[in-house]
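Q: Please design a sequence for this.
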């Protein structure tokens, strides 16, 4: 039973039953005094009306007629007092009532008669100092009768509350039960589960939330699968090259004169593997918020100048035409210079892979109202508008352009986006005026550096 009341059904039944009981009790507390007051008012009104009748009939001097009147009134539990010459025919009436009737006044009051609370109504007769007074005890037992009927209403309220609670709980608990079942299937790996949108607005919102979560997980699972396929392909290619040269060296197929070239090729492929593994580790640590970041004041002008010198050597005469566009004053921001250089190198590496010889590659820096703005623009094949929407999703561009043009592992842009976000900045992709891709990195100022 204790476990039942821990459920939504049990608690709903309990609340509705308690509400029904409280409603019955409150109704009884209001109804009892109202019922008693209504009965007493009715008695008082009838008693006053009967005094007029009694006066008329008592004017009849015939004893038989008076006896019939008295008998009928006694049947209604009404006691008759005749007042002659200012004296009641028997004891029990308060003195003030006798005096008021003897003085020719009407009486309509409530007082003790023979030690019982009673209503008193009286009228004077035609004779001097004479009158008739009727008394009737205040109604008793009314409250007991009303309270006695409460138990019936209480039982009916309890039964109604239990039934209503059970129906309401079933109505309310069904969406939660469906959501719990769907969550269990999601945790078990079934991302195709969906919940029907039915019931009240809250149930519809819950169903929408579960369905959106399932859809997001399904999409994420697909992207993760494509990403793993992409990474496995990127790993397999250099491994195959290294393995081929290693087997050739072991079998003595490669001449001593060619051994140096083979070693150089194997070293390049090993370095490519190392960069891929490093990117994977950095991404994993970024998603786990475990990557160390060392934020210091950095002059972006000097940082891009150093990057330009390094990439000028890598571009060479057969590579892109590198241009570094810098302002003539420092632009200082709070950031991690090593991580920002990692972002710039990754963007330039991507450009170097696809930009043809002689096409422009631009590193530019300008001051924005609230950010230092770094741009990496190129004259390569660029992106479509659809590409821009998924440019920073892991492996998405690799999946789209594999076999069409040279692509990387699909990690570089995702890594850049997470690094810039971790540093409190923003990165976006767009179309460059040079005809290719443009990546914009916005880094907040250390202090305001422009008017």
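A: Design:
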């Amino acid at each position: 039973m204790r476990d039942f009341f821990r459920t939504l059904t049990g608690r709903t039944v309990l609340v509705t039953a308690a509400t029904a009981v409280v409603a019955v009790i409150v109704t009884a507390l209001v109804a009892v005094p109202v019922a008693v007051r209504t009965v007493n008012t009715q008695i008082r009104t009838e008693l006053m009306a009967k005094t007029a009748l009694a006066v008329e009939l008592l004017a009849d001097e015939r004893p038989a007629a008076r006896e019939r009147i008295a008998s009928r009134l006694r049947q209604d539990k009404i006691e008759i007092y005749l007042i002659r010459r200012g004296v009641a025919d028997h004891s029990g009436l308060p003195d003030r009532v006798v005096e008021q009737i003897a003085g020719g006044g009407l009486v309509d009051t409530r007082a003790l008669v023979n030690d019982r609370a009673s209503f008193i109504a009286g009228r004077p007769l035609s004779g001097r100092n004479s009158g008739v007074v009727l008394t009737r005890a205040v109604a008793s037992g009314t409250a007991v009768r009303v309270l006695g009927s409460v138990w019936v209403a209480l039982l009916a309220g309890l039964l109604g509350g239990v039934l209503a609670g059970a129906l309401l709980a079933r109505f309310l608990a069904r969406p939660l039960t469906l959501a719990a079942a769907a969550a269990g299937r999601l945790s078990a790996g079934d991302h195709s589960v969906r919940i029907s949108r039915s019931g009240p607005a809250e149930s519809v919102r819950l169903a929408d939330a579960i369905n959106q979560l399932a859809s997001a997980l399904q999409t994420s699972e697909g992207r993760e699968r494509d990403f793993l396929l992409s990474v496995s392909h990127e790993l397999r290619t250099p491994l195959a090259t290294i393995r081929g040269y290693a087997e050739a060296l072991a079998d003595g197929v490669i001449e001593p004169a060619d051994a140096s070239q083979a070693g150089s090729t194997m070293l390049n492929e090993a370095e490519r593997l190392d960069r891929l593994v490093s990117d994977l580790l950095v991404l994993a640590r970024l998603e786990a918020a475990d990557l160390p970041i060392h934020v210091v004041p950095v002059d972006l002008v000097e940082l891009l100048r150093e990057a330009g010198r390094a990439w000028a050597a890598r571009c060479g005469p057969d590579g892109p035409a590198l241009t570094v566009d810098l302002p003539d004053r420092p632009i200082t921001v709070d950031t991690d210079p090593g991580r920002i250089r990692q972002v710039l190198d990754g963007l330039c590496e991507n450009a170097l892979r696809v930009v043809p010889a002689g096409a422009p590659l631009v590193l530019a820096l300008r001051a924005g109202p609230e950010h230092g703005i770094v741009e990496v623009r190129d004259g390569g094949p660029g992106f479509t508008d659809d590409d821009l929407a998924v440019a920073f999703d892991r492996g998405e561009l690799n999946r789209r352009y594999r076999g069409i043009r040279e692509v990387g592992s699909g990690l570089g842009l995702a890594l850049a986006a997470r690094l810039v976000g971790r540093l409190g900045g923003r990165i976006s992709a767009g179309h460059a005026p040079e005809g290719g891709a443009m990546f914009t990195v916005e880094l907040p100022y250390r202090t305001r550096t422009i008017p």
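Q: Thanks. Anything notable?
A: The chain has a mean pLDDT of 77. Residues 9 and 72 are 61 Å apart (CA to CA).
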